[in-house]
Design goal:
This protein is an all-beta fold. It has 2 domains: about 180 residues; about 45 residues, no CATH class. The protein contains no helices and 23 strands. The strands form 4 sheets. Strands 1, 3, 4, 6, 8, 10, 12, 13, 15, 16, 18 and 19 form a 12-stranded parallel β-sheet that branches. Strands 2-5-7-9-11-14-17 form a 7-stranded parallel β-sheet, with no helix packed on it. It is elongated. One of its GO terms (molecular function) is polygalacturonase activity. Keywords: Cell wall, Secreted.
Length: about 230
């Protein structure tokens, strides 16, 4: 365990190359739990990070601050890491980083927290896969070459694309799970000549939108949901 005793940060790497941070427990930091500045190919794995020691639902969650992991460098990997209390779970300001198996419940979005923040407008080049956003979301500024896949979003967790210069290219958000659908809108465009079917939204259970028509028809269905 690395206990910062609320006097500063935890682990700081400056212009380091090929460093592994493994099986650590970093707590009671005021700035960053782990900070990687420059360099590349740092591996952070099997680690627990939290400003306050809690198992969730902390009555002082609104007061959580600091950043669990700050990645200001390229080609780093964060694997099997839990961030359980911080204002921001992972702050990314470097390119070509990958996060796998990361569980963020650092501070709920409703309290102003962010699970993963990619603050690199136009140069994201980040992959987030097989992770768990637990009541806290992902924010990306001007996403370019971004992948978010096979990740579970619980509660108020969501993905936000924040416009800085209005850029978005090569963005892939696929095969993710959200906790539910609270509102849905759809449109049905029939490609069958002369057909004018009656149709209705029948179900929105389990993150699936079901639209049913009264007769068989070839059509395209477009849906927009609020989760």
């Amino acid at each position: 365990m690395l206990d910062s005793n609320f006097r500063g940060g935890g682990i700081f790497l400056n212009d380091a190359v090929r460093i592994t941070i493994d099986n650590c427990y970093v707590t009671h930091f005021t700035t960053d739990g782990i900070s990687v500045n420059g360099g590349h190919e740092t591996l952070i794995r099997n680690t627990f990070i939290g400003q306050h020691i809690t198992a969730g639902g902390d009555p002082d969650e609104r007061k959580f601050s600091g950043t669990g992991i700050a990645l200001n460098g390229n080609d780093n990997a964060v694997t099997d890491v839990v961030i359980f209390s911080a204002g921001v779970g992972v702050m990314i300001t470097g390119q070509a980083n990958i996060l796998t198996g990361v569980h963020c419940y650092n501070k709920a979005s409703g309290f102003g927290g962010t699970g993963i923040y990619i603050k690199l407008p136009g140069l994201s080049q980040t992959r987030i896969v097989n992770s768990y956003m637990d009541f806290t979301g992902i924010t990306v500024e001007d996403p370019v070459q971004l992948t978010i896949s096979d990740t579970f979003f619980l509660g108020g967790a969501y993905v936000v694309f924040k416009s800085v210069k209005g850029v978005a290219k090569g963005v892939s958000v696929v095969n993710n799970m959200f906790s539910g659908i609270s509102h849905a809108q759809y449109s049905l465009v029939s490609s069958t000549a002369g057909a004018f079917p009656r149709h209705a939204l029948r179900n929105i259970t389990g993150n699936v939108v079901v639209v049913e028509s009264d007769v068989p028809v070839t059509a395209s269905v477009f849906a927009a949901v609020s989760q």
